[in-house]
C-alpha cells in the first residue's frame, strides 16, 4: 500500500502517488458536479484495500491511527472530469479508524477497565426529557457518584490483597509466613525492622498506590490523544437550546470533553490515594485508641483521619460539580485546587505511612483490619445510588411526550423507543457494580486460596465477599432458565419463518435444509431485540441477591455455611455447595478475564473480538468515569467533519457519506456536526445500521425517534438498507414526510435460493456483511447523488476560504 500525505481537500494533479505535497501548493480549480463517496467501516475494522477493492491504495490525509485512503488511480480525480462525471459513480474514499480501538495487543488489557466503561455507558442511557434540566443534571450526578464508588472499590480490593491478606494476615501468621518465604522478612518472628504491623502496611501500600498511579497515567495519556482533539470550529452559528435533545450530538462541544475528564481524573486519583491512606492509617489509629495507648499518637491519628475526611469531602464536591459543557468549546481547565488534589492526597498518604510506621511495642496483627465494614459500606452505597438513579430515570421517562415518527422502532413492550421503559441506565449501572464486585471478589478469593493452602492458618477475605460469591450459582441458574426460554422462542419463530422463506423464492425448487437454515438465521437475528429483557432480569436479580448477601454478611458476621450451621442438613448442604461453587466461579471469572486479555497479545482473532467490544462500548465520551477506555469518536467525528467540510468547500461537489454498522453511527454523528451549507451537499447512506435497533432503544435521549427525525430533516437525502438476517442492523423507522422514506424494503438474503444459471454455486447468507454485493446498494447511491443539487455554487467567502486553507494544512 502506497501512502501519500496529500491535501485533504483536493489532491494536486502533479503529485505522483507515494510523495508528499508541499503545504503551500495551490488547490485545483473547483469543478461543479464532482462526486465523492466517503466510506466508513463498522465494528472489527478492515483494511483500505478491502474497502476500496483495490490492492494499491494511497493515504490522502491522516496518520497511522486513523486516515483517509483512495485508490492510486483516483488520487488526482478532482482534476479529471471524465473520472468524477463519467459513469455516474462517485470517487470512493475509505476512512479507516479501527486502530483507534484495536490497533495493538496491549489495548486488550483495557478489558480490565470493563466496569468503568459500563458505568460510563449508563450516563448516556438517560431517557429523553423536556423541561427538566435539574432532573437531567441529577441523573448525571448519580452516575458520576456510582463511578466514584467503583474507583474506591477497585483500590480497596488492591488494599485487601496487599495490605490485609498478604502482610497483615499471612506475614503476621507464622505458619503462612513459613510457607511463603518471600514474606519472611516481614514476619514478627524474624524480628526485622519491617516486622511491625504498621511498617508492613506502609510497605504494602506501594501496590495499590502504583495501581492508582497507573490509572492516572493511562487516563492522562489518552486524554492528550483523544479529549484534546479540537473539533471543527463553528463560530457564529446558533447553539441548540438546553432542552433541545434532538440536537444534542450537534452541539459544538459535544465531542470535546477535555475539561470534565481532567476534573474527574484529578478527583478519582485523589479518591484512590485517600483509600490507600485510610487503609494504612485506620488500623494504627484503632491500636492507639486501646487502653494504654499513646495519647500523642492518638491525637495525631484523629487529626490525620480528620484531614482524610476533609479531603474526601473536597473530592465529592469536585465530582458533584456541573458535568459536561456541550453548548460551547470549553478550552479552559479548572483552578489549581482541583488540579492539585492528587498531590494533596499523596501527601496525606505519606503522612499516613509515617504515622503507621511509628513503633508500637504491644501492637500485633490479629483477625481482619476492617474489610467487612469497608466493602459493606461500598456495596450499600452502590445499591442506594442505583435505586435513586432508577427513580430519577423513571421521572424523566414519564415526562417524555409520545414519540413522533417512531415507526416500527417503537416497541410497545419496552415503551416508546426506550429500553426497559427508561430504566436501561440504572440496569446497566447495576451491572457495572456487579462486574466491579466480581473482579474485586475474584482476586481476593484466589489470592486468599493461594496464600492459605490449608484454609485454616489465616481468617481469609471479608465475609461479605464470601456471601457475594455464594449468590453467583442462583444467579447463573436464573440466566440459564432465561436462555432456555429465549432458545425456545427462537425455535418457534424459525418454524414460523419457513413458509415465508419459501414464498420469497417462488420459482425455485424447494430444499428443506436450505429453507431451515435461512429461517434459523432470521430467527437468531431477532435475539438482539431481547437484549433489554436479559439485561433487566440480570440487573434485578443481581440487586435482590446482592441485598440478601449484604444483609446476611452484616447480620450474622459469618459465612453462609457458618450461618446455616443450625439449619436442617439440606439447608446446610445447599449453603456449603453455594459457598464453595461461588468461590470457584468468581475466581474463575476473574482468571478468564485476565487470560482473555493476555491471549490478545498473540492471537489476532482474540484481539479483533476484544476490539469489537470497544468499538461498541467506547463510542461515547468519558462523562462518568475518567479511567474508562477513551472515546474514539472524539477523534473520528472531527476527522469526518473536517474532511467533508474541506472537500465540499474546495470542489463544490456532492458527497455520499456511506456508513456500515458502527460506521453508520459515526456518520450520523458527523452529519449532526456539519454546518447547513455543507449539509446541503451531503447525502447519508447507512446499511447494517444499529441507529434505531440498538442506539435508539438504549440511548433514547441522543438517538431516539425525535433525534433521528431531526437528523432526517437536516439531512434530507438519507437512505437506509437492512436485511432480516442481520442481527445488528435494522430499519430506522422514520416516515418520509414530504420526501422519500429513509428505509429501503428489506434486502433479499441470500440473493439466490438454489443453484441457477446466474448463481451456479450456492449464494451465501450474508447477514451483517457485504451490503455492496446487493444491486440495490449501487442504485440507492445513484439516487442519492441525483437528489443532491449539483448546480449550487460552492461557498467561497473570503473568511471561509482562509479557514478552509488553515483546516487543510492542519489536517
Automatic annotation (TrEMBL):
Residues 1-29, 228-249, 782-811 are annotated as: Disordered. The chain crosses the membrane at residues 108-126, 138-158, 201-218, 266-287, 299-320, 341-358, 378-397, 418-444, 464-488, 532-554, 581-598. Keywords: Membrane, Transmembrane, Transmembrane helix. The keyword Plastid does not apply. Residues 782-803 have a biased composition (Basic and acidic residues). The keyword Membrane applies. It comes from the Bacteria. This is Integral membrane protein. It comes from Streptomyces spiralis. The lineage of its organism: Bacteria, Bacillati, Actinomycetota, Actinomycetes, Kitasatosporales.
